[in-house]
Amino acid sequence: MTQPLLEVKDLTIDVHTPRGILTAVSEISFDIAPGETVCLVGESGSGKTIASKAIMRLTDYENGSIAGGSITLGDTPIESLPQSVMRDLRGRRVAMIFQEPMAAFDPVFTIGSQIVETMQAHRRGKKSTFWKEGVELLRRVGIPEPELRMKQVAGELSGGMLQRAMIAMALSGGPELLIADEPTTALDVTIQAQILELLNELKSSLNMSILLITHDLGVAAQMADRIVVLYAGRVAEQGPATDVLGSPRHPYTIGLLNSIATLDSRRGERLRAIEGSPPGLAEMPEGCRFHPRCAFATDKCRESVPPLSEKDNNRSAACWHADEAAAVAAATHAELTPARHLSPVPDAPPSGMLHPAASRQSISSIHEAPVKEESLSGSHPLLQAEHLKKHYPLGGGWGRAKRNLRAVDGVSLSIAEGETFGLVGESGSGKSTLGRLLLQLEPQTGGRVLYRGDELSIKDKTHWRESRRDLQIIHQDPYGTVDPRWSIGEIIAEPLSVHTELNQAQRLDRVSELLEQVGLKASWQNRYPHEFSGGQRQRIGIARAIAVNPKFILADEAVSALDVSVQAQIVNLLQDLQQQLGLTSVFIAHGLQVVRHISDRIGVMYLGKLVETAPSEELFRRPAHPYTRALLSSIPGMSPATPESISVQGEIPSPTNPPPGCRFHTRCPMATDLCRNVEPAFATVGARHEAACHYPL
Amino acid sequence: MKTSAGAARRGAWRGRTGLGQAENAIRSGKRLRLASSDIPIGLAGIAIVFLVLCALFPSWIAPYSPTDMNTAAILQAPSAAHLFGTDYFGRDVFSLIVHGTKDSLLIGASSVIVGVLIGAALGSIAGYVGGKLDTVIMRVMDVLLTVPGILLALTIAAALGPGLRNIVLAIAISSVPGYARVMRGQIMAIRGRGYVFASRAIGAKPSFILTKHVLPNSAAPLLVMATLGLGSSILAGAGLSFLGLGVLKEIPDWGALLSQGRGYLTVAWWICTFPGLAITLFVLSINLIGDRWRDAVDPKRKGRT
User: Fold this and answer.
1) Which controlled-vocabulary keywords does the entry list (chain A) (predicted)?
2) Last residue of some domain: A336, A354, A372?
């Protein structure tokens, strides 16, 4: 084996908090060879970010300290270098890019001056030379008009552009190692694909090593040579990417892989979620930290910490029962017909790995799915939108022209009773606004909404308020949407007190029932929202939404903010409830696989317009609109669903000034003059399949 | 080989963390933490109880009558007989302070209550309803704010004439714009919160949302502001008393006492100093307790610490 570029050995990091010293990362070891991409994969609280910051020795500035172990870069031991020496290494040998490019740039200085500043920190030279170099770097990372961009400030660039500029800045010192901390998490999926491609290209042409931190196994699958899976501050498993993803040996890795919805997982089938949630820093379990959530846990796991034992082929897993776990995973893997692209998800769940409720539900749901689809086509529309428009007036005054932000610009659709309608699109496509308009949470600029055939309007107050009983919403931010002064019992009872005449005792009963229905304990009613984890809070939000037995639920990015393993639990819960209560729902999300998993039919939005609707399977198998195909192609880590994948360049244009003709023509590889001038009609291209394209695929 | 070295290091390392935790437990242990933050609160509580007792039963606590003039002992420095000394009439300063407590607290507390009620109401209406009403209310508040508070109170008190009720009203009105502004800002911030949107989406009526979500969540900064206001109201009352617009009685309140002693500051420091300390003690105690109260009603600090 070649001399590693970076060697991290038994690294332990303490964080000093007002509550005392907490150990964020315990004895983690990994190394990175020159030109290699290593992915640190883990959920929130796994210590992946703090470990990466320790390599830069940035932890010193955040109440952290390296309490043990070593970090060696080339021949230099980093862990005890004084900060004055570290400063010279940072940017020159190791550079870092962050999750929020918006926040990482100083908003008052130009991009150019910040890049030049970085260069000046390490080299002597004329400012004008550095400026020219900066322009070249921006050009190198694919930023159009680099001379102009150099003179702009962060607020004038889009998120994708800023992340590119960030990469350019990181490259300015010619680093040997680039640390990328969730570089694409804040970006849209099409932009994410572009950035990942750029990173891969830079890596091979500059022979740079990359340490990529991510929670997204898809990203890891696409980028990594080797993967290090972290759980609760310890390495759970590490090894070559194909091995870790193809034949995982740690129950946590197996569980993570099982809990993501892949393009091949059967719709309506339950996801195999890992029970519980990752532990907080202050309450680390004894022994193996995964044991409370592990199906293989024995007394040995509860008592002693499993060492990271090396297996052949440079792989290791920290589990007492790794062989057993790997065997179960492999056995079920063998039953699989065509191998899944990403995960070896078994069709039959490995025994004991499920939440007890899971097995009860899974079988019935698989059989129900196709039947449901048949019956849907004949049922009545519950909610209809007719030419819905929402324009937000912007600016005006002070000599500036008044403009309209066309968030939703003429959308018609019909949602059948019992149907789950998925809504996808990049940010700025208007999907959330459309959701709010459907529920009439804000007045539309044009068009109308029909509920069971009658017009629903926010202006008809009495009728509107009554309709809230039937139309409920699950919000994206489960914490911000509950009153912090209310106990969760009061929160869940709020719709009851608004819409029903139940007395105190009856309300208590109903709340207990609801809490149990969403998988929480009835005795928790007197607790406050801050005492719960993200997943539990979302369960509270769901309980509130279903409290008055609504007919329709809007789930607006309801699972987007949650950890992967928790996300699966919530998706399962939503599916169960939909079946039990016969709900109709609109499910808005940017995670395409999740939407596909949960929805009967999917609508794709682009710049305020619906560009395609089709049954889920159909949409993924035969996307008719180039934009849909581009979205599918940009899902990381998946071999594309269709043979011809489309990659889109550029970014979504501003909704204040949408392009004429087909709104997608600026980014469409197939655009013609017709597309540039004439807006395509929303036409049928197949059974229950419509698309707005002149040349449907 | 590799693993044994790792294990050794791990062992050594664990020993160190254990030590760190033990040290930490000693340094910020529960008993110690309780003591360091609860002593001032306890003292503040005792001070307030004492001052309230002074207000209710002054003659039980004061050793002399406040109207007793001992011409044989004028301008005497603090001594065993006269704890805080005597003034230019030979009155016992300690007894004067004790007897002045009632009016001082009354002016302070009632003007704050009246001011907060009016200010919060106006601010809530302006913030929640918005639009033209907001503009009208807040421009009137702006106009009032352009006049210095004490001058405004002075004008009002002069127009209404002297007397306890009028002085309270004058101070209350002069403090209204400040409370209204803070309340309006709070209401507007809370109105945009997710849980208000959620409540609206549930179908709750605006009055329900205002009373159950918006007001309870907006109140905290106003409470803190009100406790601080208590101190400045007492001072404002003192100022008005000094100018002859206050409570004209033979028993001066703290403010009047302070003003009266001002002329003797060079020869008899105690006449001014002790009423001043009384005001400070009261304001400080109220602030400490107000702070703790705010923390106690904050659900984020309840439960786990």
Assistant:
1) ATP-binding, Cell membrane, Membrane, Nucleotide-binding, Transport
2) A354
A303 by Cβ neighbours in 10 Å (0-12 / 13-18 / 19+) ranks as exposed
- The answer to whether the Cβ–Cβ distance between A527 and B216 falls below 8 Å is no
Q: Which residue of A has its CA nearest to B12?
A: A68
* Long-range CB pairs of B197-200, under 8 A, 24+ apart, other chains included: B197/A441, B197/A475, B197/A481, B198/A473, B198/A475, B198/A481, B198/A482, B198/A544, B199/A483, B199/A494, B200/A441
Same domain, A44 and A184: yes
Of B13, B21, B25, nearest to A12 by CB-CB distance is B13
> What's the rounded Cα separation, in Å, for the pair A457 and A442?
9
Cα separation, A147 vs B262, in Å, equals 71
Q: How many domains does chain A have?
A: 3
pTM of the model: 0.78
A669 CB burial (10 A radius; 0-12, 13-18, 19+): exposed
CA distance A529 to B45: 32
Q: Are A627 and A666 in contact (CB under 8 A)?
A: no
HSE-CB for A600 with a 13 A CA cutoff: 25
Residue A683: other Cβ atoms inside 10 A:
12
Chain A residues lying within 8 Å of B194, measured CB to CB:
475, 477, 480-482
The phi and psi torsions of A421 (rounded to 5 degrees) equal -105, 120
Q: What is the pLDDT of residue A277?
A: 80
Which whole number is the average pLDDT over A570-574?
Answer: 90
pLDDT confidence band for A228 (50 / 70 / 90): very high
Judged by DSSP in three states, B304 sits in coil
Same domain, A36 and A89: yes
Contacts of A119 (CB under 8 A, 6+ apart): A125, A130, A133, A134, A172, A173
Residue with tokens 């169960």, as numbered in its chain: A576
Give the three-state DSSP class for B181.
helix
Q: What are the start-end ranges of the H helices in B210-268?
A: 215-242, 254-261
A222 and A163 within one domain: no
SS3 B152: helix
Among chain A residues, the shortest Cα distance to B19 is held by A21
Does one domain contain both A169 and A179? Answer: no
**Number of other residues whose CB lies within 10 A of the CB of residue A268:** 23
Q: Which of B23, B202, B213, B214 to mutate to test the interface with A (most CBs of A within 10 A)?
A: B202
Determine contact, residues A257/A345, Cβ cutoff 8 Å.
yes
Q: Name A28's bridge partners.
A: A11
The predicted structure's pLDDT at residue B49? 92
Q: How confident is the model at residue A334 (pLDDT cuts 50, 70, 90)?
A: low
Range of the domain at A152: 109-173
CA pair distance A594, A320, nearest whole angstrom = 33
> Assign residue A20 a region: left if phi > 0, alpha if psi is -120 to 50, beta otherwise?
left
A118 and A80 fall within a common domain: no
Across the interface, do A498 and B213 touch by the CB < 8 Å criterion? Answer: no
Beta-carbon separation of B198 and A481 below 8 A: yes
B205 with A465: Cβ contact below 8 A: yes
**Across residues B65-71, what is the average pLDDT?**
83
Structure token digits, residue B202: 């549930």
Residue type, A199: L
| Domain contains A157 | yes
What are residue B247's phi and psi, to 5 degrees? -80, 110
Sign of CA pseudo-dihedral A633, A634, A635, A639: positive
**Whether residues A145 and A265 fall in one domain:** no
What's the complex ipTM?
A: 0.77
Contacts (Cβ under 8 Å, ≥6 apart) of A458: A440, A441, A442, A443, A464
Residues A168, A183: one domain? Answer: no
**Are A79 and A153 found together in one domain?**
no
d(C-alpha A546, C-alpha A573), whole Å: 12
Nearest CA in chain B to A493: B202
